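Milestone 3.1: sequence recovery, worked example.
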């Protein structure tokens, strides 16, 4: 799997990058779009090189859709599951575990979670909270909180 780190300079071009990589390297069958770990140089220059994850998310969903069109599996890393919309199953924790979103009604603490990850009040209502990476503490300090987060629910319609 080829990894591609998302940054402020490239996040609007993710879909084009997926197409470019497939066209240039036809044998590529999977790409991981990774939101940066905020450490080292990234931590020292957050506002210059990192876009808020909620600004990045629509472009990630578009890149995943492009991958479907051209037969390239696109998965994500370090992006909260709820921000993937209908492409929840492309979150790396779901791909690695070979689970579908509907399989995650159980709790498993073995999934990767950033140390000191930030979760908001709405996250407490989410059925995939135990599987979500959350947000980096530094991301929260620099960009604050957004109202874009939505709890994922397995509850069906009331009968």
């Amino acid at each position: 799997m080829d990894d591609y780190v998302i940054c402020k300079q490239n996040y609007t071009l993710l879909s084009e990058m997926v197409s470019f990589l497939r066209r240039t390297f036809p044998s590529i069958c999977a790409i991981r779009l990774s939101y940066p770990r905020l450490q080292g140089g990234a931590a020292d220059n957050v506002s210059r090189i990192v876009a808020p994850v909620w600004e990045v998310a629509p472009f990630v969903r578009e890149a995943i859709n492009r991958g479907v069109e051209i037969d390239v599996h696109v998965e994500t890393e370090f992006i909260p599951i709820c921000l993937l919309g209908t492409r929840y199953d492309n979150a790396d924790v779901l791909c690695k575990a070979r689970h579908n979103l509907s399989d995650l009604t159980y709790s498993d603490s073995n999934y990767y979670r950033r140390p000191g990850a930030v979760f908001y009040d709405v996250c407490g209502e989410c059925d995939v909270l135990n599987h979500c990476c959350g947000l980096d503490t530094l991301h929260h300090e620099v960009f604050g909180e957004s109202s874009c987060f939505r709890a994922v629910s397995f509850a069906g319609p009331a009968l």
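Strands lie at 2-5, 30-34, 73-77. The chain has a mean pLDDT of 86.
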